[in-house]
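Repro case for the chain-ordering regression, as requested:
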Amino acid sequence: MSNLTKFRRTQQWLTFARLWYLYDATYQDVFDSAIVIAQYLRGMNKPIYDHVRQDVGNHVVVINTSKVSMPVDEWKWRMYSHHSRYGGGQTWAAAHELHSKDPTIVLYKAVYKEVGSAPRAVNLIRSPTMARLHLFPDACIPPEIKANICDQIRQVQPVLKSLKDYSEEEVEKFPKIVDYPEDYVVK
Amino acid sequence: MRGRVVKPSFAVPQNYYNLYSFGTHRIQLSGFTEQPFYNGLGRYVCQLQRVTFKFCKFGGSSKGVREFIETDVVDFSRQHPGVVVYLKPRRHKTPIMVTEYLNGNSHWMNLRNMTKSEIKLWLDYMRTRSGEPIKRYRKKIKTEWPSIQGPWNPFLNMPSFVNVTDLPNEQRGAFISEKKSATQQLLEMAKDGSLKNILKTNVSQEDKE
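-- result from build under test --
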C-alpha cells in the first residue's frame, strides 16, 4: 500500500530534476575544468548521488571553449592519437593542432577521461553522461539551450587581464611604488 | 496421451501450493514490514479465516491427523469460532493443511507422519500469524513520511538572485581566491591611505612645471 499522492510524486520529480549549469571556460585550465565539469555531469554535487543505482547527472553548457588554457608547454607536448583501423593508420596530433581544427575537442576529451572508465556502472552510463555535455566555442548559445540554464559553475582560476584590457585612466590611476632612476634607459 | 498434463476443471487453485508465504523460494522474498495495524486497537481480529485438513482414513502417515481430529479439533473450533475448519478425507494420500488468511494469502503445509502434539503446535502457529509471507526486511523500520522537513531538491540553497539575473554572471561564476593578490592588496592600501610612498610620475611632473 503506497501513499504516493500527486504532491509527493511531484516532490519526487523535483528531487531528481536534472539541472542545466553554465560554465565559462575563458582562460581556464582544461584539465582542472574537466574535473569540475565531470563532477556536475555525474551529479556528484547532489547529496542523493548514488554511483550504483541512480543516474542523477546534470547538464553542463560550456561556452568559450576556444579560449581554454593549458599549463606551461602542454599545448605542445600533449599528443592525441587516432587509429583508422587500417594498417599503419595511427596518427598523432599535438593539442594545439587538434584545438585549431576543432576548438571544443580538447575539453571534450578531458571531460571524457574524467567522467570515468574503471567501474562497470560508470562505464555503462558514460555515453549518456557525455551526451549531457554541451560545448560551444564562443559565447553564442542556441536559445533553446539557453532557456534551460538555471545556474552557473564557478570557475577554477581567475581570468587574468593583460595591460590591453585596462583603460588608460585605470593605468594612470594605478598606485606606483617604485620608479625608474633618472639614468635608466627604457628599451 | 502420455506425458500430457490435463488439469481438471475442479483443480485446486494455484495459491494453495505457493511456498512464497513461508519464504522458502530459491530467492527469498524481501520487503518492508506489513501488518494489519488496526488489529488490537479496538478488538483483536484473528487473521486466520479457514483451515483445511486433508488426510487419509487408512494411511499410517495420517495417523497423527486422525488422532488430532478425534481429540482436539472440536475444542479448537469452539475456542476459535472465527475460524472455519474443513476436514477432507481422501484415500491414500499424504495429509496436508491449508490455512487461509484475511488478506487473501494461503499457506500449504505437509503433515506427513506428524504426531498429534506437533500438529497442535503448528496449527497454533498458523492461527497467530498475520498471513503476510515471511520475508527478509530491507530495513528495520517502515514509515510513510520519511522526512519532516521534506526531501532535498536541487534548488534548496540556491540564492534567489540567480533566478532573475542573466547568465553568465560574474558574481555567480567568477573564481574566488582564498588569498588576496598583490595587486588587490596594493589597490586597497592606496584606497585606505595607508600606503605613503606612492610615486605618481605623471602628476608630479605637472606639479613641477
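Ordering looks correct now. The longest strand of chain B covers residues 48-55.
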